[in-house]
Write a structure and sequence with these properties.
- The protein is α/β, with parallel strands linked by helices and 293 residues long.
- It has one domain: Vaccinia Virus protein VP39 (Rossmann fold).
- Helices cover 44% and strands 18% of the residues.
- It has helices at residues 3-16, 27-38, 44-51, 68-75, 89-101, 113-118, 141-151, 173-185, 201-207, 218-225, 239-243, 248-251, 256-274; strands at residues 56-62, 79-86, 106-110, 126-132, 152-163, 227-233, 282-288.
- The chain has a seven-stranded mixed beta sheet, with helices on both faces.
- α4 links the parallel β1 and β2.
- The protein starts with a helix and ends in a 5-residue tail after the last strand.
- Bound molecules: S-adenosylmethionine.
- S-adenosylmethionine (SAM) binds at residues 4, 7-8, 11, 63-65, 68-69, 86-88, 112-114, 132-134, 137, 210.
Length: 293
Amino acid sequence: MSNIETTASHWDAKYAAATQSAWVQNPVVERTVYRRMTGQEGFWLDWVFKNLVSPVESLLSVGCGDGSHELLIARQGFAQRIVAFDAAREAIQRAQETADGEGLKIEFRNSLFEEFVAAPGPENTYDAVLFSGSLHHVTDLEGMLSAVRYVLKPGGKVIVNEYCGPCYQLYPRSQVETVDRVIASLSNEFRSADRLVMPSIEMIMDSDPTEGVRSALIPVLVPLYFKREYERFIGGGLLHPLFTCLNASRVNDGSPESRTLVEMLILLEDELTRAGAIGHDFMFGVYVNETNI
Ligand SMILES: C[S@@+](CC[C@H](N)C(=O)[O-])C[C@H]1O[C@@H](n2cnc3c(N)ncnc32)[C@H](O)[C@@H]1O
């Protein structure tokens, strides 16, 4: 199987199983992440379109997955017309059926980042471009950002909500040790593993060879192509790897003990991040295309 087929089948299987990233399955963590993104309560996407990107005529979404964000944007009237593409064929098909059933103006395409970079389409076409969890799967970041700049109108906005931690999510030893010390401090009922195990390169290539392929370069490269309008680094350096080692049914059960534990872990992540002991795994920003303004 080629890398792209591996990625597409990996994601189709994930969407079919409705799997969500472990740490944001926890509602307390999810709310905290949204607050770190926007400084307020509530879903980040609504906030973006109410505060930074006024409702647009046309929006392109790169790596739209099952289309959940794009359907929401169209339903809320935040974009009149949406083009969205992704490698995951079945997810795209289902998203198109939903959009058509609701009479929403979204064109879901089953196509690849590589195809878009090679032939991005007409210049100055879109008012906004969305990357939600997709840019960290792009190998040719420079090609992708150039292609986006080409299709974006002058003054158009790029919305980025991304993993920006270590490439391939291969954490440095010091960070793995920090996570391991936290795991060791938890009682058995809350954990599903004794320590954080980094995958081998063979495991990475077999499951999803584009997971965080050049992620650490995202915060460096995006501002070289677009002007920063809003940018927040939103943590995750402890919680994101840690949650893969926690017993999800216990830690997410909503009991006072699990809630207290999660709140303490969030506090610990805040302190470790502030002290510079761990980095940020995620970032969120809105950038402007200044070309020919
Ligand atoms: C983390 S998911 C994000 C999906 C969606 N934007 C969201 O916020 O839920 C990453 C997506 O990138 C897509 N992807 C990965 N490599 C791709 C490629 N080469 N071309 C097109 N899509 C790709 C995957 O199929 C997957 O749906």
